[in-house]
Specification:
Blueprint: E1 2-11, E2 14-23, E3 34-39, E4 50-52, H1 54-62, E5 66-67, H2 69-86
Parallel strand pairs: 1-5
Antiparallel strand pairs: 1-2, 2-3, 3-4
Length: 89
């Protein structure tokens, strides 16, 4: 089964996560099928905290991929941020 989850990268004390579609049997930071975004929990200044390709996530969900709880939370945040950015002021 394919899962959409986070792979940890970065240095000690400075985490960076790639959001990937991976085989559920693969290790957390091991082999993956496709990178669909990233999450930087310590983004500062003008850095982008996360980016997700929703079209690819929808594709993987359509073919039966399960989404991890942490990625599900990020998807909700991304949808909320996109909605507020799309509203003209």
């Amino acid at each position: 089964m394919v899962t959409i989850r986070m792979n940890r990268g970065g240095a000690k004390g400075r985490p960076f996560y790639n959001i990937v579609a991976a085989d559920s049997r693969a290790r957390r930071d091991g082999r993956f099928v496709e990178r669909v975004g990233f999450y930087n929990p310590i983004a500062a200044g003008g850095e982008e905290p996360f980016r997700i390709d929703l079209a690819r996530v929808d594709y993987w969900r359509g073919v039966g991929a399960q989404v991890s709880p942490s990625v599900e939370r990020l998807l909700k945040q991304f949808a909320k941020a996109a909605k507020t950015a799309a509203v003209p002021a």
